[in-house]
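quick one
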Amino acid sequence: MANNDKNMKDAKDNQLNEYRNSSQGEKLTTNQGVRVSNTSESLKAGERGPTIMEDFHFREKMTHFDHERIPERVVHARGFGAHGYFQVYESMKDYTKAKFLQDPSVKTPVFVRFSTVVGSRGSADTVRDVRGFATKFYTEDGNFDLVANNMPVFFIQDAIKFPDVVHAIKPEPDNEIPQASAAHDTFWDWVVNNRESAHMIMWLLSDRGIPRSYRMMEGFGVHTFRFVNDQGKAHFIKFHWKPLLGVHSLTWDESQKLAGKNPDYHRQDLWDAINNGEYPEFELGVQIIEEDQEFNFDFDILDPTKIWPEEQVPVKKIGKMTLNRNQDNFFAETEQAAFHMGNIVPGIDFTNDPLLQGRLFSYLDTQLIRLGGPNFHEIPINRSIAPVHNNQRDGFHRTTIDLGKVAYRANGIDNNDPATASGQEGGFEHYQEKVDGVKIRQRSESFKDHYSQAAMFYHSLSDHEKRHFIKAFHFEVGSVKDPKIKQQVVEMFSNVSHELANAIAQSVGVQPPQSTNNEVKPKMTSPAISQAKTNFKAQTRKVGILLTDGFKFNEVQEMMTALRNNDVHVEVISKNLGQAHSDQNEPVEIKQNYSTTHSVMYDALYIPGGKQHIDQLMKHKEAKDFIKDTFAHAKTLGASNEAVNLLSQVLPAHISLAGDQSNNELFNDLGVLTIQQASNLSDFSQTFINELAKHRHWERELKDEKQA
Ligand code: HDE
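structure w/ HDE:
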């Protein structure tokens, strides 16, 4: 593989191509290439007789099947991958000598695996959880793995506690309940006894825990790393991924319904977007701190339970990743992908963050059994595109055929090859940090403040985010059975906010906090924590249209054309699949019936006019449920002409509709758009698209609550 190949994307694709295998037009064979004449009847002694041992094809087929499963990852078991490429915006030479961060014309191939953490491989995508965001950069200097999450802090400060937090959050061991959920006694018992988790709990129970899409989440490297330039000068850095579509979340009710209606919601969304050519894009950002500024902050910059507030240390956007190719085979690529914190390239280096240090051990170790031995780097998805030469040999599933006799160093027979490389020749040289200390099992005093940033988080949320967050506590802590644990949660979070602690106590049936004067007053808020000021776009979102026979064709046509011109997807839904016919008998294709879809699969809903069609919809309970859920989940909802009557019937108490208005006047009440006596929908459809771009109309939740 030429090192000077500018189009590195093709380099990985070409490499994978050597392993792709299509059976189209081929004969069925055994694994030894022997053609098989019959694979549906085993070899028997007589038609009704016993199966014969000699049936080598039966034995091979069955043995392979019996061993088709490998252990799932102990965490991040459920995931989904995609290929793409990364390009730096301008040379980062002043900060790092990493080759993939030098030349804007170079496309470095990447493979990304998104995941949930707690659930097993078959669990639902939309559960409340941290999301993994692991990226393998196939650089010309070898593989660099950025193994990130969608939250910037972690539960613990020292890796030795990882088995404890994972045991606590996983299903309880006596009955393996609950699946993919933190809402149970052992987890909250662990939280109240491990208060460094306070800040991470804030992120987990916020809307960040239920993303709308993998395409709409941020990624964070969490730890403090180093960039090192070719002069050997280092800077402390933190990595960020910023999605161009903005950061958006589901509502809790929606995420629960989706878990049943479509457990594959997130993977389907990613797969479809890439297939449709709507390539998800993420900008890579870095926060940079000079080495001599290490102690200038009121938190320890090595503490993984702390963020560097973006208002204090801005995120510099240095490049962009585009995901443009779906995997060919889930098992071969997503399942066998092996990420490792130690996959690092010259120009990037570690720090003494004790969580990072422990991860350096765990990732390599975990692959040995999962992937069956030490040669998992030879699995196509894990292979570097930079040449690999060393004296490591043999082991399970070795595929490389190493030539020659020599597998040791120092050697004279082969001229001491393979030779080591100096720093100038691209050899990895560890940053020469001075380390001086006594052996000690103790945490630094500077890691002891667990509440300041948790309080900063709380006070940085917008009103609707705070409401969602408090409700998340009601569910999570309300699901805990032991009143003692619930009380301890209230006491613990009274350090963050008494308003919050009281709201939890009231809902989960325990006493308000006993402590007084313990609430931490944050020195600052960090608007970047909130999702309220993210990017808002209508593109790639999905709109449902409810139809039955007798609808007004021009209304549907106008709306569909406007949506499609804005790269919005449209699906027509009715009671039965097939076609619906307009009042002038024009046919429209029905994509989904009430059983194959649900309101939670859409970002917005539109209902056109037409008397006969609306009379029918009024009789469909499912159509009414569609409207109620669209409304309750704060989504854009549009109705034209006769459809306005349907909305007034389904949502009588909630909303001011154009029912009282007339004469083609567009009425917009918190994203519920209505118009009557309209012959032309051009303004209406444009407003519908603008409202759709807002993602949700959260103020509607307040109105809903007041009138409930
Ligand atoms: Fe992981 N983590 N982790 N983790 N992690 C794994 O490695 C571990 C942590 C993250 O898509 C495992 O290959 C320890 C932080 C992602 O394949 C395992 C500690 C962050 C993935 C492991 C942490 C992560 C993993 C399980 C505490 C965000 C999925 C399977 C020190 C920065 C990678 C595997 C994929 C997976 C260990 C904490 C992200 C067991 C010991 C912090 C995205 O090795």
